[in-house]
Write a structure and sequence with these properties.
This protein has 198 residues and is α+β, with helices and mostly antiparallel strands. The protein has one helix and eleven strands, in the order H-E-E-E-E-E-E-E-E-E-E-E. InterPro entries: Flagellin/pilin_N_arc, Flagellin_arc-type.
Length: 198
């Protein structure tokens, strides 16, 4: 009729309650740790990706070797810019580059033709390229420190020919987002010359 609870039964119930609370705390801690580890991994991969992209924007650019103008009469009608990889740069596909030509007749956004200059002349707002030195036959891709490409700007296709004393800025933007600026001034005397260094 009457039920008696002994001291041992009370201790057992308290122990089970403590065990349940302990297990719950361990589960919550495990879930929280899992979330933190996943978040840390995600942030780490994002920071590495951002770092690589930032590095490419700085290093994956071209470097000017020489700039020469072809003289026609008393004007320059074609500009050849020889470029190579900048130190520390990765592969640079010149067909994916965009160029801004800033000259006396205006600013022009130029894109590359898909063929070598020796096979076709660029038309409209385009520039072309000519492989000068290429050890592996990659033609339009600068992938070695010894590679050299001539960027050919047929000035009269999109602007007026350059006169003596004209100033030009060429900005070459690679696919990675790195930009190289090349500035030159046409010499004051072009008479009796076929080509001039700019």
């Amino acid at each position: 009729m009457f039920e008696f609870i002994t001291e041992e039964e009370e201790r057992g119930q308290v122990g089970i309650g403590t065990l349940i609370v302990f297990i719950a705390m361990v589960l919550v801690a495990a879930i929280a740790a899992g979330v933190l580890i996943n978040t840390a991994g995600f942030l780490q991969s994002k920071s590495q990706e951002t770092g690589q992209q930032s590095s490419k924007q700085v290093s994956d650019r071209v470097q000017e070797v020489a700039t020469v103008g072809n003289v026609s009469g008393s004007q320059i009608d074609i500009v050849n810019v020889t470029v190579t990889q900048a130190p520390g740069a990765g592969e640079i596909d010149i067909q994916n580059a965009t160029v801004t030509w800033i000259g006396p007749s205006g600013t022009y956004q130029l894109t590359s033709t898909t063929e070598n200059y020796s096979q076709t002349n660029p038309s409209g707002e385009q520039f072309s390229y000519l492989s000068v030195k290429d050890s592996d036959g990659s033609d339009n891709v600068l992938n070695d420190a010894d590679d050299r490409l001539n960027l050919v700007f047929d000035v009269d296709q999109y602007a007026s020919n350059l006169n003596e004393g004209d100033e030009v800025t060429i900005k070459i933007n690679t696919m990675a987002g790195a930009t190289t600026s090349i500035r030159f001034t046409v010499p004051e005397s072009l008479g009796n010359k076929q080509a001039v260094e700019l």
